[in-house]
Amino acid sequence: MLKTPVNHLNGHQRSSPPLLSHGKTAFIAGDGAVDGSAIPASFLSVNTLAFPVKRHIRSRRRAGHSAGEIKAVARQSSTASVVQTTSVKATVTVQMTVGGVLSNLGISRAFDDVADLLGKSLLVELVSAEADPVTGIQKPTIPDYAYRLGRKADDLQYLAEFEVPETFGSIGAIYIQNEHHKEMFVESVLLEGLAIGPVSVSCESWLQPKSVAKSKRIFFLDKVACLPKDTPSGLKALREKELAILRGDGVSDGPRKKTDRIYDYDVYNDLGDPDKDPEFARPVLGGKQRPYPRRCKTGRPRTKSDPLSETRSNDVYVPRDEAFSEVKNLSFSGKTVYSVLHAVVPSLETALLDKDLGFPYFTAIDSLYNEGVNLPQIDSKGPLGSVLPRILKAVEDVQNNILLFETPEMVDRDKFGWMRDQEFCRQTLAGLNPLSIRLVTEWPMMSTLDPAVYGPAESAITTELVEKFIRGFSTVEDAIKDKRLFVLDYHDAFLPFVHMVRDQPMRTTLYGSRTLMFLTPDETLMPIAIELVRPPGNGKPQWKQAFSPSWDATGAWLWKLAKVHALAHDSGYHQLVSHWLRTHACTEPYIIATNRQLSKMHPIHNLLHPHFRYTMEINGLAREALINYNGTIEACFSPGKYSIELSSVLYDQQWRFDHEALPADLIARSGFAPRVKLTIEDYPYANDGLVLWDIIKDWVTNYVNHYYPEKNLVETDEELQEWWTEIRTVGHGDKKDEPWWPVLKTPEDLILIVTTIIWVASGHHAAVNFGQYDYAGYIPNRATIARVKMPCEDPTDDEWEAFKRRPEDELLSALPSQIQATQVMAVLDVLSTHSPDEEYIGHQLELTFDAVPEIKAAYEVFSGKLKELEGIIDGRNTDDKLKNRNGVGVVPYTLLKPYSEPGVTSMGVPNSISI
């Protein structure tokens, strides 16, 4: 291929045609300081983190060299006649775009191709790690234009070549300036020619063209990762400047541009659209009245009708490097969710004219998997068809498309499993929401709500009712003492919302609920009772009733209906709290604080970075299409328009950072003592999760101890302390005064904090996300909404007679409507899908880890243990004694198996919350 024919800037020459080189102006290397200003810095006489270059002696005359030769010369005596230099090559790897070499056909593409031909694609500058020993300011940089080498796999490579004087010292960073007219994604830079061998520079960043970017981009070498106090003298000012850019220091509060890299905080004030309709107004989440984690600031203007609310847009800002890759965008992703909601749902509404129309019979639900739903007005051969191959299928001989769903694994294994009480209980330990079950520690169960407002506090589940079911095993007193009574308790959480939910125009209802279970000797749970409560209001007293498995027809049907309500409550809590709040929403402040306060030179930034990939982007898309007004959550879950507001109440009442650690969470749920013996020994989520937790913690321990060999180093690390302070006082500022926040003084404190963050982003999220379709893709197993009240709650004579005549109709009426069911199924299919570029925990060695032999070795141990976990889980799933994960028709528990193929697999633990 052609190599660039123009002169480079580092002192070596290339022959060039006269027409291309004629009139070329000499470019003097270096700018002397950061942006040309003199910035004093302390000089490190010994820098163990930087690297000397190989010394080559090349005789050069001080004068009389060719006119086209521009040489980077370090400061030296005027009497010197020999310059000691080394040849250094920098290979820049740029990710190819899906549309072609750099895509974006047009005039700018033509100019960029010419720039590549002339060798002026990227301006690369070497930055010394050492300040000038005399002046104390940054040494001049050594620049060169990189020319395109060609394509390697799916990447493009550019080469810059330098002659580095020995007086330049160690290389600590590089500047890169994009000379193209379009942005490009720079993956990494490899420096070759150094005395210690090749050195990597992890970039993983979008580089804006010179016409957009206000300054050159700085990237630090992977090997210079260090605590602030150890920063080489020539990099101190650059380290601080880069953090100031990411914080947006000095930038106005206007709307953020897509190309911005600014991380800042704001409240959730963009979920409603009061300018469109007053009914679409939603309260601000975040602040004393409605505490909530903070989200990324977009800078959009406020609405006209509500100065507290922010206007909405179709493209929610996230810092540029947080955006989906092109592969992610073109595969199953958050963009696909948006497409489902904005293409599939309107077509469903066209096909199903009555939005409240339920399923007329259960075989109509089954038909979704073998006949599908006709979807007019949608192009299956367009972009949506390409990204939804699992559920959208064209029928060539009919001018329609078919929304045809895959059969969820649970139904595929046991079509009637959803009816079994044992399966109902098993899923609280090995299903989609294994984070709510708690040990009963007091009897009778009591509400903490004000009885003057919500009615008598004592539960309707009595001792007599319980002992009718456990008489052969125990008494209530002994069952509590022996830790055998467990409960899903959504009574106090949901009861204050009951009347508000019921007053909505949408067809839905709500209760406060408790579901009581007994642990049998074979480690399976047996359901005892479901309590449903309606508070006083609208001229009616409190209504509550306990339902139990029954041998008579009426009691049996009421029990089936009570289970629909209990599951709807659990589905809502799972989606709003266990999933959205505790992973997505609570992680976003960690990401913002990490980028604002921890330099990319900081080892803890490098440790956490893989676990934050895509999370801000998927959260932005959730605000755009899932948790917003009339989004899927509001339209298809029982709390309706109060759904996210309910999550705010539960954040205020229940969320604690210290309890996000898996062992602490298990202990907090009363008695799951993970270091001694689990109260329920056959608890698949806890058993697999604790192994994964220990593996993560061991890796974090090795990493932290390497960088913090002395205890006082944590407390004196100013970046780290600012990071933790900002997470507590700003990102989660509504809880800043809580006494339970961990202190950060020792390496042990840091290990626990970082392990908790990584666990939430990886294991916790995987456990509550990737099984959604296989468990909730069959609506009767896990209805997201209960649309009608219990038939025994203040019934009229006609209502009761209708229930007695056809109880199946009552059950079908309680389930989601056809539109709600198909909308939820389509969204859950996408959310349960691993994309082709998924990055699984421990699977890919980061360049920053590879740069340090001790860290690389620790990572290899980490990766090996994760592979062992795969075998441990497979072994447990074949153990006949573990009835909660093995048996006829039982779905094995694989959600915490670390690795997976692309698609819906109900396994695989990604590094981050990437969907």
Automatic annotation (TrEMBL):
Coiled coil: none annotated. Residues 1-20, 276-313 are annotated as: Disordered. It comes from the Eukaryota. Residues 291-302 have a biased composition (Basic residues). Keywords: Dioxygenase, Fatty acid biosynthesis, Fatty acid metabolism, Iron, Lipid biosynthesis, Lipid metabolism, Metal-binding, Oxidoreductase, Oxylipin biosynthesis. PROSITE patterns: LIPOXYGENASE_1 (PS00711), LIPOXYGENASE_3 (PS51393), PLAT (PS50095). Residues 303-313 have a biased composition (Basic and acidic residues). Residues 225-915 form the Lipoxygenase domain. GO terms for molecular function: metal ion binding; oxidoreductase activity, acting on single donors with incorporation of molecular oxygen, incorporation of two atoms of oxygen. Its cofactor is Fe cation. The keyword Cell cycle does not apply. Transmembrane segments: none annotated. SMART domains: LH2 (SM00308). Belongs to the lipoxygenase family. This is Lipoxygenase.
